[in-house]
Amino acid sequence: MNNISNTKKLTPKQQALVDTLVAKGCTVTQAAKEAGYADGDSGRVTASKALKQPHVQQYMMQCVTEQLGMNATIAASKVMKLATGAKSEYVQLEASKDILDRAGFKPIDRSQVQVAGDIKVSIDLS
After folding, report:
1. Mapping DSSP to helix (H, G, I), strand (E, B) and coil, where does residue 122 land?
2. How far apart are CA 52 and CA 125, in angstroms?
3. Per-residue model confidence as pLDDT tens digits over 106-126
4. Is the pTM of this model over 0.90?
5. What is the pLDDT at residue 8?
6. DSSP characters for 16-71?
7. 67 touches 56 (CB < 8 A)
């Protein structure tokens, strides 16, 4: 991933752990093994503790955001293809609604509240 300013706080193992998780989408156990943590449960536990540290979480969120940003064009293209070319009219409708929603044309959420009954308040000041 990118050389983010927070990486200075990360150990090489922590950075490799996060990079592996984000790039491959594997389990913590698999990523821990690839990043050089001990094998078995102790490696998974150590890696899990590392992932809970705020600076590691921040680096992971930055990497995930970057990864999603790079792949957003693929997702947008797929939704456009579904809206125009899906065999199912329902799929076309849902894809079209999603496009309109993301373009800022979401329908207004409306809710109606009815209260039935009489309310009586008596205040005795004597």
Report:
1. coil
2. 60
3. 877 777 777 777 777 888 887
4. no
5. 57
6. HHHHHHHHH---HHHHHHHHTPPSHHHHHHHHHHHHTSHHHHHHHHHHHHHHHHHH
7. no
CA dist list (Å): 31 to 66, 86, 126: 19, 37, 76
Class of residue 51 by CB neighbours under 10 A (exposed 0-12, middle 13-18, buried 19+): middle
Full DSSP string of 83-111: HHH-S-HHHHHHHHHHHHHHTT-PPPP--
CB atoms within 10 A of CB 36: 13
Buried b (16+ CB within 10 A) or exposed e, 91-121: eeeebbeeeeeeeeeeeeeeeeeeeeeeeee
